[in-house]
Amino acid sequence: MRMRSWGAMALYLMPLLATAQPSVSLNGLLGRNAAILVINGQVRTVRVGQQQDGVRLVEVGDGSVAVEVDGQRRQLLLGAAPVAQRSSSGRGQGAGQRIVLSAGSGGHFVTSGSINGGSVQFLVDTGATTVSMSRAQADRLGLNYRNGRPVRMQTANGVISGYLMTLDRVRIGDVEIGGVEATVAERDMPVVLLGNSFLSRFQMKRENETLVLERRF
User: Fold this and answer.
1) For residues 212 and 217, what is the distance between their CA atoms, to the nearest angstrom?
2) DSSP3 helix / strand / coil % (the chain, rounded to 5)
3) Is 135 helix (H, G, I), strand (E, B) or coil?
4) Which of the residues 11, 101, 149, 189 has the least number of beta carbons within 10 Å of its own beta carbon?
5) CATH number for the domain running over 12-77
6) Is the pLDDT of residue 95 over 70?
7) Where in the chain is the domain with CATH 2.30.30?
8) Sign of the dihedral defined by the CA atoms of residues 96, 102, 108, 111, in that order
9) Dist. CA 198–CA 120, nearest whole Å
10) Cα–Cα distances in Å, from 25 out to 7, 38, 94, 160, 180?
11) Which residues have a Cβ under 8 Å from the Cβ of 71 and sit 6 or more positions away?
12) Which residues of 25-41 are buried (b: 16+ CB within 10 A; e: fewer)?
């Protein structure tokens, strides 16, 4: 069973950059049928046989994948070419390095955690560019999102308004990450989407109904 993305709620910041000669690295494995690739600095979930931004995923192995770029086959090792760390203020210094999640109903990975010390329920969504939440959730957490940058976001139901901001702390278990980008949407959402602004800090590997996140930086 592959990991699914809540397409109806996943938020994408626009536009995305493309290049004629993409650079690519392996960020995570999702069973034998999909992988998380970083293509030109953008995190992409790609299924075997699918092409994204000029990169086609050929096969998934143990700790590696084969891709095709410009007609040439490449072998990528997990963690061999890490994404450059973005500078941010107030980086988290949580002692934990590993998060282990079990799939729930429908194959989704849902877990409790906190944002800036306030408790939330997260849904792992590799299709979401950032950690994403509703305005009501942000108000409950006391976030000053209106001081953030106004943005327009593309969803499955059309373009909506929101704000882009940086969270001081995002925590799951004993793992805490600081300086995480988030979007606050002008719409209702039952959970907080745990998107790639958090997930890209980890190597991801799915085995059956278990998802393991190993901290990279």
Assistant:
1) 15
2) 10, 50, 40
3) helix
4) 149
5) 2.30.30
6) no
7) 12-77
8) negative
9) 15
10) 24, 5, 26, 32, 21
11) none
12) bbbbbbbebbbbbbbbe
Q: 169: helix, coil or strand?
A: strand
- The amino acid occupying position 38 is V
Residue 47 in tokens: 């299924």
* Over residues 27-36, mean pLDDT: 83
Asked if pLDDT for residue 155 goes beyond 90, the answer is: no
Residues 6+ apart with CB under 8 A from 88: 166, 178, 179
pLDDT at position 11 is 44
Q: What is the dihedral of CA 119, 127, 93, 215, to 10 degrees?
A: 130
pLDDT value of residue 107:
85
Residue count of the chain: 217
98-215: what CATH class? mainly beta
Query: What CA–CA distance (Å, rounded) separates 128 from 182?
Result: 10
Q: Which residue has the higher pLDDT, 15 or 212?
A: 212
